[in-house]
Design brief:
Layout lengths: L7 E8 L6 H14 L3 E6 L14 H12 L5 E3 L2 H4 L6 H11 L3 E8 H5 L7 H7 L1 E5 L7 H11 L14 H9 L10 H10 L5 H13 L2 H21 L3 H10 L8 H8 L9 H12 L6 H8 L10 H12 L8 H6 L3 H19 L5 H9 L11
Parallel strand pairs: 1-2, 1-4, 2-3, 4-5
Helix pairs in contact: 2-9, 4-6, 11-12, 11-16, 12-15, 12-16, 13-14, 14-15, 15-16, 16-18, 18-19
C-alpha cells in the first residue's frame, strides 16, 4: 500500500464558540506551533450533537465573534460550513467535506479532554479517526492517558497531546457578563467590544435599557456610554464596589445628554448657567422616570458624574472616573490617572485636571467640583501644578 504524501497540514477546531475566548485562540496557536500546521480552521457548530446550545448570542453573532477573534492572524481561518448546514453538526460529516475540499491535506481534529473521553459516543467515531488525526488538548491538571490509550487501541490511531489549555470557559464568560463582572483578558479585545456593543449575555432588563438608550442617543454617544460601562465595571471589581449598581449608573450616565438644553436645565434643577453639566442631574431624573431605576445610590452617581461633590461614595467616584478615563479619552494626564492604584488619589487627580481645564477654557467652575476636590484633601495651591 502506497502511503499518501500530504502537501499541507490543516487543523480543525470546532465548538459552539458561545463566545469564542482566549483559550480557543491559545489552543489553535499551540497546535500551529507544536504540530507544524499551515493553518487552523475555526468551525462554529450549528446544532452541537453532544450538548444543548447555550443561549445569549445568535449564530450570526457567534460567527461574527469568531471572525473578529481571527483578525490579524491569517493562519486562523473561520469557516461557516456547519452554520450553513442544516441539522446536527456531526464532526464526521464536516471532516468528510474537508477531505473532499483538501484532498492533499493531512487533517488534525483538535479536541479537549471532555470530548476525548466521550469519543466512543460520537456519530461514526471510526470515520472521524480515519479522516483526521485526533489531537488532545487537556484541561490543566487532567490525566488523559487512559482515554488516549483507548482511542489508539480501539481506532488504530495515535493521539498527539498538546500543552493544557488556559483555564477559561465560555460558561464562565457568559456568567460574568450577566453578573456585571469584567471579562477583560478572557476574550480577544475585539470580541469584548462586540459583546458589550451588542448587549450579549446581559440580563433582560439591561438589554431593554440598552435598546431604549440606543434609540435616543447618536451612535458615538451610545458607544461612549458602553465604554464607560465597561471601564466602570473594571474599576468596581478592582475596588470592591457593587458591580450591578455600577453597571446601571454607568450605562445611563448620559441618558439625557441629547435633550434640548432648556429641557436639561429644567430637569436638573441646577441654578447655574453651566450648560455642560445640566445633563447629569437631568439624567438621574430620566433614569428614574423613563428607565425605572429606583436605587438612590445609582441615581446620585449619575447626577454627580460631571461635577462630583463633597461626600462622594466609592460608586460616585467610579462613575466620575470611568467617564474621564474610558478608552477613547485622550488628554495629557489620562494615562497617569488610569495607572493610579488608589481610587481616592485617582479621583483627586481627575478632579484637579478637570478644574484646571475648566479654568483655562472658560472659567465656569461649578461649586460642587471645588467642594469635591477640597473634601478629598486637595488644595487650591496644587491646582497650579496641573
Amino acid at each position: 500500500m502506497v502511503k499518501m504524501r500530504f502537501t499541507e497540514k490543516i487543523g480543525i477546531l470546532g465548538g459552539t464558540f458561545q463566545p469564542v475566548h482566549t483559550a480557543h485562540i491559545q489552543m489553535a496557536q499551540s497546535a500551529l506551533a507544536r504540530l507544524g500546521l499551515d493553518r487552523v480552521l475555526l468551525v462554529p457548530a450549528n446544532i452541537p450533537p453532544h450538548k444543548q446550545l447555550p443561549g445569549g448570542a445568535s449564530a450570526a453573532d457567534r460567527w461574527r465573534m469568531v471572525c473578529l477573534a481571527a483578525e490579524g492572524m491569517p493562519e486562523l481561518v473561520p469557516d461557516d460550513m456547519e452554520l450553513r448546514r442544516e441539522g446536527p453538526s456531526y464532526t464526521a460529516d464536516t471532516l468528510r467535506i474537508l477531505r473532499e475540499r483538501y484532498p492533499k491535506a493531512e487533517l488534525f481534529f483538535l479536541m479537549g479532554s471532555d470530548m476525548l473521553a466521550s469519543f466512543d459516543s460520537w456519530h461514526k467515531p471510526q470515520d472521524v479517526a480515519t479522516l483526521a488525526t485526533p489531537v488532545c488538548i487537556p484541561r490543566d491538571g487532567s490525566d488523559d492517558s487512559a482515554a488516549i490509550a483507548h482511542i489508539r487501541s480501539a481506532y488504530g490511531v495515535n493521539v498527539p497531546e498538546l500543552p493544557p489549555a488556559l483555564p477559561i470557559s465560555s460558561t464562565e464568560i457568559r456568567a460574568r457578563v450577566t453578573a456585571a463582572r469584567p471579562i477583560t483578558g478572557l476574550v480577544p479585545p475585539a470580541v469584548e467590544d462586540y459583546i458589550y456593543e451588542r448587549g450579549l449575555y446581559q440580563p433582560e432588563d439591561i438589554r431593554a435599557a440598552m435598546a431604549q438608550l440606543r434609540a435616543v442617543l447618536d451612535p458615538l454617544r451610545f458607544t461612549h456610554s458602553i465604554r464607560v460601562m465597561r471601564t466602570a465595571i473594571d474599576l468596581a471589581e478592582k475596588y470592591g464596589v457593587n458591580t450591578e449598581q455600577t453597571r446601571w449608573a454607568a450605562l445611563l450616565h448620559d441618558c439625557a445628554k441629547q435633550l434640548p438644553p432648556e429641557e436639561q436645565k429644567r430637569l436638573s434643577g441646577d441654578e447655574t448657567d453651566i450648560s455642560k453639566i445640566w445633563h447629569a442631574a437631568a439624567g438621574a431624573r430620566l433614569a428614574e422616570t423613563e428607565y425605572g431605576v429606583r436605587d438612590p445610590a445609582v441615581l446620585r452617581a449619575i447626577a454627580l458624574h460631571t461635577t462630583g461633590d463633597q461626600g462622594m461614595t466609592d460608586l460616585d467616584k467610579i462613575i466620575y472616573l470611568a467617564d474621564i478615563i474610558e478608552p477613547d479619552r485622550d488628554f495629557p494626564a489620562v494615562q497617569e490617572i488610569r495607572q493610579e492604584t488608589s481610587l481616592n488619589r485617582a479621583i483627586l487627580l481627575a478632579l484637579g485636571c478637570a478644574i484646571c481645564y475648566i479654568q483655562k477654557a472658560d472659567g465656569q467652575l461649578h461649586p460642587a467640583t471645588l467642594r469635591a476636590y477640597l473634601d478629598l484633601g486637595g488644595n487650591k495651591e496644587e491646582l497650579e501644578t496641573f
